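Page 37, top half.
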Amino acid sequence: MMDEKIINEKFHKYEKMLSKSNISVYEYYPATDTAVKLDASLNVVRKISPYMNEINSERWLDLQEQSRYVQFLRGMSNGNIEIQYADDDGHMTLKSIRKLYMVDETTGEEYLLITKKDVTKQKNTERKYREQAQRDSMTKLYNRVSGREIVESYLDRKNPYESCGMLVMDVDYFKGVNDSYGHLFGDKVLIKISQLLMDHFDKKAVVSRVGGDEFVVFFYDIDNNQLVSRIGGFFDDIKTLTFAENDYIPTCSIGVCFVPKNASNCSYDQIFQNADWALYQAKKRGRNRYVFCDNMHRYNEEIMEAGQKEAAKQQLDARYFQNDILATAFEVFEKHRYFDDAIKQLLQIIGIRFQLDRISVVDIDIRNNIASCSYQWRANGVKAALEKPQCYKREDFQKFFSKYNAFNALVINDENVNEYSVEGQRLVMQNNTRTVLHIARYDEGRYAGTVAFVTCNKNRFWSLDKMHELSEVVKLFSVYRRKSLGVNKYDCGCGWYNDYDDLTGLISFARFKEDVEHIIVSGTRQDSVMVYSDIENFSEYNRKYGFEQGDRLLKEFAQYIIGTMQKVENTYFARIVSDQFVLFMPYDISVNDIEYKVQRINDSFIRTYMGDDDGIKINIRTGIYKVTGACSGVSAAIDAANSARKHIKPSDELKVVIYNESMA
């Protein structure tokens, strides 16, 4: 046996180590709910019973931590947990608690041996080193790796109803700064720009330096108007930076990508590539500007074996079932000389690829409440639908139209069709239809009908990704159809609209018309106004100051109007072309103050932007149309507001006019 002296010496060493390690030792006996606190010599200091009551009554643990600690003690298995404590001064400390399941050899009683150690300092040190590893050593922004990881983590758990955005930025001609003034000054420029980025975008944003003079900012939960406003403000402020060493004034080029709601499964790489493309466009156009990515395309490939077999039978190109469906649609339309031949083949490809039973291109005459079918594809053995024009009830159409989602899509199953009238049910669910995906079609912003993708023998689930894919194809279909009818004289590449205006970042005019048409035609809106504005003498302004300064004026106007708009649902703002803008928003048209309010906003912008400039005099001219239930659609409302605008003469003192019938 070991000598008693040696045992005592070892015990004293362990006792000394225990006291210096700041570890508290307890024994907890679950059977009697008793805790025994021991000192460094493992002598009993205090007995606490019942211990659970002690835990619940102590103020050093909040309710959540109390619950965690109790659950930890009640589990008899070994393990550890970290608990936050508050000391008498209210300072928070973190303790690591470990437990070991034991049995008393003499009595056979089960108990837990518990150790508590204050790890606050250790954890703070670890956090400090971890943050240092995440940060760029010079600018203190997130580095490329950590910034990406944080954004990817957010995207993995992102609420689909949240929109987000990203900017990618380069400092213009930064190599020349280093060459001319030295790398130490170049570093100072980067540090100052980094601080400005943090000042502008720190809240609900991830700001990263991804290399050299390149920065990335990712925005959480931000709408398009807020994104436009915040980027415009930063772009202006970067030019106000000054340096004591010399007269260098930094400028930057920025690419921006906005990710709208319901853009599911969107990756960091996809967003970055879109923003980086926009940055390239900004540089291509001369730098010292920001450009918005006009669209966010994502395609989720799924090659269907059964579809490929069917395609082989019908001698269709196998690539049509491997490439993304939008690229396939482009190719089909470009390949065929006649639209009818192209649409027939495209419907066949979609029907086989998506394993459908029928696809119908439905034309809607809203004025006369008539639905008809212009093109149709059917799988073998499937009956045709809507073989002759049919009437529908107005109330059925309004229910139907109001349910389109953000992708202009609506899914109807035979289980949820009961809200429509008997006639409406027959019209929608013809010839054994079980599930139909409707994608709305628009022609120059006017609702033209729908494309119905039908499954007959079983109910079908449609993912948002698939809805989005087919929605993009239907947009392309509408463009080529307009071209075939001679309505669109431009090449189809111009006609297939982008979602956002790359100069101002506002939604595109085509998107504006679709969204507002949906509100007006559905008949569910409150009273609204359509506001059509342009800048008087804008062409002369361009000639005198240059197109770059003219673009800046347009951006400033867009920024200013966004800043004055109330955050009201169903408010839309777009640039039509050049200096012409259109705004649609709810408004109580019984109150006769709209002219005064708009004139005040316009005058305020001119004073703010032009100041005391004695150069070319500019004015904002605005026509207003009060949208009521009698309005037939968005085009009529825009035309009316534009007519009012055109009635304003250069000599008129009041530059805001409300439409009346004499202006028609």
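Page 37, bottom half:
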Amino acid sequence: MDNKIIAERRKTYLIGNGVGTVQSIEYFNKESKRIVEESVELRNTNYEKIINSVPLMKEFYEDILTLTKAYKTKGTKSYLKDEIILLIMEQLKAGEKFFYNKEAREHTNWWQWEIGIPLRINDIFILLKDEMDRTLMEKILSTTKYFQPDSRFSGNNPVALHPSNNPLRVSTGGNRTDTVKISFLRGVLLEDENEIIDSLEALPEVWEYKKDDELKERDGFYRDGSFIQHGSIAYNGGYGAVLLSGVGEILYLVGNTKYERYLSRIENFYEIVDKGFEPFFYKGLFPDFLNGRGIVREQLFDHVMGHRILNSLFLLSVNSPEKYRLKLGKMIKREIEKESFYKYFENENSVFFYNEVKKFMDEIEEKDFSYKDQLIICNNMNRVMKRTEDYALGISMHSYKVGNYEAMNGENLRGWFTGDGAYTLYDEDLGQYKNYWNEIDSHFMPGTTEIKMNMENIDAQRNSETKYIENKLVGGTKFGSCGVVGMEYTNWNEKLSSKKSWYFLDWGVLFAETDITGTGEIYTTILNRRFEEIPKVSVDGKNISLDKEIEIVAKEIEVFGKKYIFFKDEKINIELEKNNGKYFLKVWVEYGLNPENKTLVWGIVTDKNKKYEDILKENELEISKDEISLKNADKIYKINWQCEKDNKAFCEIFEKDIKVSEYIVK
């Protein structure tokens, strides 16, 4: 009985009530026509172009699932058509015969063989179990079990292909939720209670907090809101989103069934959502600096990622206790209400989510959706985010336990500097980062200091797959919505070093970088921002022309009302480039050849009423070799670069000479 309930819930999740919306019917009709037309060529060539292409293999099963959804959705041209179900059966048999069977050997990307394809096959059979030949289903599911036999692991000894040369690997994080989902739904399809129970008992491990001092097996969630995947990469988006989706789906499926009891300590996960997902939303988007190598995937840009996470939060809410359900509902409604760039209901193709989320929002009576000023510091993944009603700003750092960036499977090959103290700024231009990472000059990453050189085809990764930077002095502390963060910085080839600090204040963010020393031509990028039209730029109150590269001495730059200030006169470079129909404004500071102990102090002013002179007057910066401190009317923010030697805190905040917050490097 419970197996049938779970199967019906999965069907509802996949196709809603079986009646399509206008946009889903339009989508299914268009895709079905394409799939049917392409199937003729595949059949005539004996599927030869798919056999050696894992991406095409993945698309093949995605297309079968899409065609299956169209077949089961009322209103589509494919609804319950005999020729469609016959084509689906033909394609499934062809896949088993030509390229996805027990005689095949993994190549190219292990994930698709062991996870991606089995996930899709399960859903095809969930939708077609009543029409499906039992023998064919069992044969194909035995193939998925061959490639993914145990929910606790990725791989299978005889066949797995993985860079570690370890074919049977403990699955963690997002991969664990996927392997659990594969075994769980396969157990439902085959009515194998042992596989169902074993898979569910393997899931709670993903919501057990990791210890802050753990250095070997770091994948997972931390109490400060951090989430690590692949040993050293900040991944609340990407793999964290996959994990959230998997947990949400499983909780939705097993709620109020006999299998629910096999998911222990689930309260942990609601706390994880509150710490590791909620604080990072901004007007519907989920920021790129938590998305690892996924930042280069245009189809998963920050608003799409936010949209997907909201869907997962809704699933999590369905069978949750009332107090969690209301909290999740307020969060979902807030982000959908604030989203103006990628509107939820205009972009949701799932009949299930479209209808159910709309009903859920109507239940939530909350009216005030403003953000409170908040500073989120996640020292376990070296990430910081300041969020207010008017903007959100994230900082990405790296250290002896967090990688500078990840490049894998041909993705994010130009992510060289994204973890070097780069900042991302989210404001009224909500589309700023859509495909941004593929269009900008990646040598100029906002907030970073680098060596001028052509980085193309250079692998600059310093992470768990290569070799970490040895620096431990990375982290920060906060008091209220203000705080201080520091980073002892060494670049990827160890020919450049500096001491970076950030002060998150009421008027904006102050960037202070000292002891800048390097071999070669060194420069700091202030901004590299994209515009739909030529931006209006003024320097110290005077408008400037952008028809050529400019070198000018400045205290203050204003770009479309946003101010960037320097604490003393600085010679800056300004250049406007056009790419793909967009305008990119670059501003940077050069230090010349082989600089030693240079300093740059600058800031982004987010309070439009704050004047340059008042900021300088109200904020006193003291810099020495061992310490840097900022004093203003009510607080002192300190960073001690000799903290390990002196056995003191790395970052401290004082209010009226009383220490109110600190961060100690462990």
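Margin note: The chain is about 35% helix and 25% strand.
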